[in-house]
Design goal:
Blueprint: H1 3-10, E1 16-24, E2 28-30, E3 37-46, E4 54-65, E5 70-78, E6 81-83, E7 97-101, E8 111-119, E9 127-136, E10 143-145, E11 162-169
Antiparallel strand pairs: 1-11, 2-10, 3-9, 4-8, 4-10, 4-11, 5-6, 5-7, 5-9
Amino acid sequence: MSKAAQLAKMVASGGVLQVQQTVKTDTFTSNEQTNFVDVTGMSVAITPSSSSNKILISYNIGTSIVNGAYSCYLKLLRGSTDIAIGDADGNRIRVTTSALSNTSAGGYNVYFQTLNFLDSPSTTSATTYKVQARGWNTSAGNFHINRTNIDTNSVDHARFVSTITAMEIAS
């Protein structure tokens, strides 16, 4: 029996067996408005010790959006499979979280999108969780991760940090 399996037997149901985290400090920018794109550096891998255990996925991602009526949508995936998204309903977009700039000062605002989701991957293979993003507006515009939309070299513009964390929870 592996050490991971031995540890899992000793931890009570609901206990945390392992934690993996990715910290993103660099920036990401896209103007994609049709398809979701991978957010570079926003993925985390974990190998469950038992197929009956669950994985608690958390993210805290700082986004900024071009001024006025512009959205940044985020979506969580396990491998290439969408998880933690809303139900299909007509033409509505299915996402995990979103942020909307509804102000002319949107270029200075930061919108932290957060998530806690308990997944059941039913595997003991290495599993990667990642975040994809896309924007929306009636006219083209960028969305950003870890920076404000207006990004001149000035103290009124910020850089920040985003994280994605995977915790194995004993069943």
